[in-house]
């Protein structure tokens, strides 16, 4: 019994690491730029396709292609912020919502057109490998993905707390107007925040590639969990999103294991509603941002 | 656009409506109404002229409509179907066409139904009204075929299809299904499980959609009669991120056979996870994406020994192997079930046309209903015989059990169709 439980927790934590990369991106953009990026899942998809094509065309391992997918998506994020998002930042929310939503639809259909709806997988030497410890097993590809995801989250935390730019981003997220009065250039800060968030999505894509199929709709699978984690971990709170993502992963896994294979999301959303009932602004609210 | 109108005149069988719509869209913005009418009217006239069969010394070609999703989510198999349909028409034509009609050649008119039920309805309508068709084949996907067949019934044009939905055999007179029906697939899967182990303990996992629920219920009903015990029966949410918790449950159930009623992506995750866990269990992945060349490419070695069911396989007969060689030459992949089935279907149509000695769709239907073949490409189905009952079902139709062995999909069940023994992994 405890073995099944332990295995379920391991499974949940490992997939939660991937949710974390996606949700940290969403929460970073929301916290700093104050918009909801509905297209975040599609950038995960693009990260996956970058890794897929590098692997099939040039034989580059998906994990190594992280060094390509992250900068490419960072640049894409800076450009999108500069040419699209910046223009709609104003008192009215609707254009922002439609902009990122339209971006999501555009990228989805563009990839359907370019890559077709086929499932693409990359088979690496460690794709099917697993470590067996007692009665438990740990899939190698997922463990690597989890470790890298945690390392990237840690790096981001260090960046936000120790560098001037990072501090400027936190300042802008706390109060944009005061930050501007202190001489922080909001456009620069926003561009870096958007780029960083997309780079994390790209990293998630590359890390997924050894064990998950790439297809145009793949982002939608992950973005739903990401949004739940972002709300649960308090909007704009990076650490909250990280912890909530891991919790979501474990809740989903336990739900499938002990309630029913089609009830993973039921448990996740029940947990979300419970959290919101007792802590309306999420788990990370008390810490302050 | 004008060049396209010209094509219509030289006998290109593109439906004139396409030319028409395309040219009006491409017209300059500042057209006044008179100019617009003059232009579209001209193209219409050209299209109408093109649609008139050109009388000459050569026999008129016989138009066969082909409805397949070549774009959208079902495009992967649809594109393969079109390649097979072209191969089949070439084979018939190279063998001398329809002799009773003066060696008339088959002319394939392909229409993209875009993986969408609404588009399927309008495209089928347009294909029938825009062309003089003798018969139609399509759409492989049951959801689309059901709609296309309704339109064909109303227009009284015969449709022959590889779709397996049992609904296609209800209250229809112009629909012909030469291959095994969905209800027969479940039975074959259960019988294969008995081959793996006398005490077959089956875990059935299925996605909680119409497809998964109906197929799994079929399995549940048939299992006691086949002497198979179902030890786990579990729906799951399609499109999960991680199959590990589900496979954990399968492990705990003590099953020795796993039936996974899943679409390709979920199935890939399930198979990989079973290997990671190190679970020793026979997996039957059913049909559809599982029996496609792409499945092996995606899963690799882990696919070895996996079982499935198909309505056709490339090794069921010598003729099938010939078709496979040709198809491989053209596409680089082995002929999958729908591709090979389509070649057989085209030869069934040719056989009917030959006996009808007419391109009239009603006469072709009559001839199809009395089709009775046991040799040649038209009989290239598991069982080797085709004869349609009053419900349009091939009375000899049966599925073939297949298994991935040494990177190839091999027929292993029933004994009559088996080309290799079932590996009990």
From TrEMBL, chain A:
Gene Ontology CC: one annotated term: plasma membrane
Origin superkingdom: Bacteria
Swiss-Prot/TrEMBL GO biological process terms: amino acid transport
Main localization category: membrane
Pfam families on file: BPD_transp_2
Regions that span the bilayer: 12-36, 43-60, 66-85, 97-116, 136-160, 189-215, 221-246, 258-278
Annotated keywords: Amino-acid transport, Cell membrane, Membrane, Transmembrane, Transmembrane helix, Transport
Compartments in which it is found: Cell membrane
UniProt membrane topology term: Multi-pass membrane protein
Record's keyword annotation contains Nuclease: no
Gene Ontology MF terms: transmembrane transporter activity
PANTHER family attached to this UniProt entry: AMINO ACID ABC TRANSPORTER PERMEASE PROTEIN (PTHR11795:SF445), BRANCHED-CHAIN AMINO ACID TRANSPORT SYSTEM PERMEASE PROTEIN LIVH (PTHR11795)
Family label: Belongs to the binding-protein-dependent transport system permease family. LivHM subfamily.
Name by which UniProt lists this protein: Amino acid/amide ABC transporter membrane protein 1, HAAT family
